[in-house]
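#structure-requests
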Amino acid sequence: MTVLVASDLDRTLIYSAAALGLTMPDPVAPRLLCVEVHESKPLSYMTETAAGLLAELTADPSVVFVPTTTRTRKQYQRIRFPGRPAPYAICANGGQLLVDGVPDRDWRRQVAARLAEECAPLEDVHRHLLAVADPAWLRKARLAEDLFAYLVVERALVPDEWLKALTEWAEARGWTVSLQGRKIYAVPRPLTKSAAMHEVARRTGATSTLAAGDSLLDADLLLAADAGWRPGHGELADVAWTAPSVTALATAGVLAGEEIVRAFAREAARLGRLDV
């Protein structure tokens, strides 16, 4: 039996200093392990306990751990997880499938064909974003892997009405809008983590799939998995989103990441016993 574990990264498995959510007294705060460095500075962390659990999980030959992220390949490759290197990784919200760190060309061609058929061109969406964004709160505008666009903003200054109007405009053109931290993503609706997860499951012969995520862009991944978990923070928690196969955790911050890895390990062990 093979269990596929597909986990979102930022604010699900790994956390920036701003997202750690360390609300306990300093003397009892968890020890942290830095798993990402950017421009010579530490950027993302797990608890040491979560890191140890992940190393144990990836050492199990019946488990295929698949980092699953909206990050570009370059951004993903900054991360150094403990344990065995992941043989597969899903980047760009499903637009890139890495096999032993190398982009799979066949998958990219399939994705490109579907996007061309089902949604408005990236150039149109990017042009609209630049036209309607207010310089008072816009900090950066970026394209990712020639697949989707995102804005880096001062979140507190972005009007809710503006975000609602953008969402409606994008939906009419086959795109999805998601607000994550200081980033506003515009992603083609067919570009999903779940489609890439199904492809990895097919290639590995996985008989069970587990998933975790915190944002609107993770909802399809959670629904596609046999069992899923979401932390007590993020877009999905803000709207109290859940589903029959999804466990909504009360824990928020980096301790939620630890709880998610523990849940992965517990469920993988249970499925292994059932297979005996």
